[in-house]
Amino acid sequence: MDKIAALGRQGLAVIASFGRSGRFLFGVLSGVPRPITGFPLLVQQLYFVGVLSLAIVVVSGLFIGMVLALQGYTILSDFGSESAIGQMIALTLVRELGPVVTALLFAGRAGSALTAEIGLMKATEQLSSMEMMGVDPLRRVVAPRLWAGFIAMPVLAVIFTVVGIWGGMLVGVEWLGVFDGAYWGNMQSSVDFVDDVLNGLLKSVVFGFVCAWIAVYQGYDCIPTSAGISSATTKTVVYSSLAVLGLDFVLTAVMFGDF
Amino acid sequence: MGNRRIEVIVGLFMIAGLAAILFLALQVSGLSPKSASDRYTLYANFNDAGGLAPRGRVSMAGVTIGTIESVTLNKETFQARVALAIESDVDNIPTDSAAVIRTSGLLGDQYVDISVGGDMESLKPGDTFYSTQSAMNLERLISNFASGR
Amino acid sequence: MDSSAYISFDNVVFSRSDRRILDGVSLQIPRGKVTAIMGPSGTGKTTLLRLIGGQLKPDSGTIMVAGQDVPHLKRKALYALREKMGMLFQTGALFTDLNVYENVAFPLREHTQLPEDMIRDIVLMKLEAVGLRGARDLMPAELSGGMTRRVALARSIALDPELIMYDEPFTGQDPIAMGVLIKLIRDLNSSMGLTSVLVSHDVPESLSICHYACIIADGKVIGEGTPEQLRDHPSERVQQFLGGQPDGPVPFHYPVADVAADFGVKGEWFSG
């Protein structure tokens, strides 16, 4: 009986936190953005969230592209169609790995930092003092970070994809000796701009929104102690990763499924 | 000033993103500035369209000159009706040319190859190829060979 | 109701997860004076300040600030009212990513469209008032605790508020820093005509600067008046708090079951 009650209590807590995060999002987005003070804040957050994540995204993209080329070559050469690795690498990166891996890296690199930063601002009463100064922290602190995450993710994802394709070319063409023209030609005839590139981009837009939302909400909602902040940071990474993978399945089914 | 530097770096970051998407559009998906409006449609009827699929390649003498737009069934003749989007600068395909379904390699994708005829007149948008050659069916070839016919 | 009261609480009840923190508090805070709210730790003194600022809403009762019913204000009106309030937090709550100058300039940049040179003049004036004009380029992490509070004070008076609230300004300060803060609070009150509310449990310091004080314990006001009136207050609990005696009407022990029951001792000898 007690166990059932505990389950019910947990269920209610989960639903309540969904409700709180929804209301929180509404509060953030409904605040009228003020272009004059808002824009420099957004640029600053784009720097922290986007530019500083660039290194890890580029390096990961390069290696994933090279690994795909190696694996693809081994498998495809059994069928004598190793010239198809361009197509294979491009499709996997554009449709799946680009958006998904970037989102996972983003959650670990930028999402956790956002949560910790906002959580610490809450713990040191900076948010509270802002409120008492008549400045809405949702608009001043949270909104620029949310928008920055939302904008930075697709940019990072396309850079990841391009670097991956280039890395695949390094291994496939320069090292394993696939014909250059076949690499690009197969790619071009099989990748469609709208169906593949734009859908992949749409995925990363959705992931960017979800990851940034989870990160700022966890920071804003955390218990303002050191233990609370560390658990909120962990939650950000775990929830973002789960949300990205789950949403990826749904989006893939809708975009690329034939039904 | 630190702010200025950050603004410039963020600007470069956004430009890098735009360049990347441009690269994906032009180099990876082969989207040419010539969009769909710069193409015209020809039709070809096949008894067996085999593995033809939309977005497949249409080539002439090995050079890609267009894509397959759609593959539908003509309910009256029970033939496959394939719409081909041909680049508009290739506007002098002779009317007696044949549309042939070929396979790249033994197991590769199937595509439409246009064998050029000798007529002085050329096909106009919306025209249908007079002569076609259906997909080579490997299975049928082998069974024909085995039964000695 | 006293017409000179800037803030008035009428029978305010506030509870947090079943625990009653304020249980029917009524008090008046006069305009242009320094009012000290004292009481043992954990009796809801900071809660009182947050109620004034509208960050918390009471379960029942009315809170009037400058003639406005705070708990029922619309968001916009509340934010407008807060521009007239300054609050000094216990930790200072400076923005750690901005330097001292930018911290003080923050409310000006957010709420006014002043040109940059005018902002500069105001910021330097406020920093001068707290004696830290020379520290303008330091980051908050480089400041000592006393300096942090002084910068925070400069920031909270940047918009020339009508009301300033101090949350435990003396806690954890060395005697010199404390002296500086006492002097600043008194000077600001007399020179700018601010209504000041001071929340503290440091009795001698608070009594030395306030015009009026009230003592809260167990969610109720147990004594109020001028410092002189309080020293002669008849209530034992007021005297225990002012004198700092360890045991008295405010018990030494947190409410708990009988000692014998906790330690599993049967006899009566242990629980004397």
TrEMBL record, chain A:
Transmembrane segments: 45-70, 146-177, 197-216, 237-256
Annotated InterPro entries: ABC_MlaE_roteobac, MlaE_Permease, Permease_MalE
Main location: membrane
Keyword Translocase among record annotations: no
Membrane topology: Multi-pass membrane protein
GO cellular component, as recorded: ATP-binding cassette (ABC) transporter complex
Subcellular localization, as worded in the UniProt entry: Cell inner membrane
Family per record: Belongs to the MlaE permease family.
Name under which the protein is recorded: Intermembrane phospholipid transport system permease protein MlaE
UniProtKB/TrEMBL annotation, chain B:
Name this protein carries in UniProt: Phospholipid/cholesterol/gamma-HCH transport system substrate-binding protein
Membrane-spanning parts: none
Domain Mce/MlaD: 39-116
GO molecular function list: phospholipid binding; phospholipid transporter activity
Source organism per UniProt: Marinobacter persicus
Record PANTHER family: INTERMEMBRANE PHOSPHOLIPID TRANSPORT SYSTEM BINDING PROTEIN MLAD, INTERMEMBRANE PHOSPHOLIPID TRANSPORT SYSTEM BINDING PROTEIN MLAD-RELATED
TrEMBL record, chain C:
UniProt organism field: Marinobacter persicus
Keyword Transport tagged: yes
GO molecular function list: ATP binding; ATP hydrolysis activity
Keywords: ATP-binding, Nucleotide-binding, Transport
PROSITE patterns: ABC_TRANSPORTER_2
Ranges where the ABC transporter domain occurs: 7-243
Protein name in UniProt: Phospholipid/cholesterol/gamma-HCH transport system ATP-binding protein
InterPro entries from the UniProt entry: AAA+_ATPase (IPR003593), ABC_transporter-like_ATP-bd (IPR003439), P-loop_NTPase (IPR027417)
Signal peptide: none
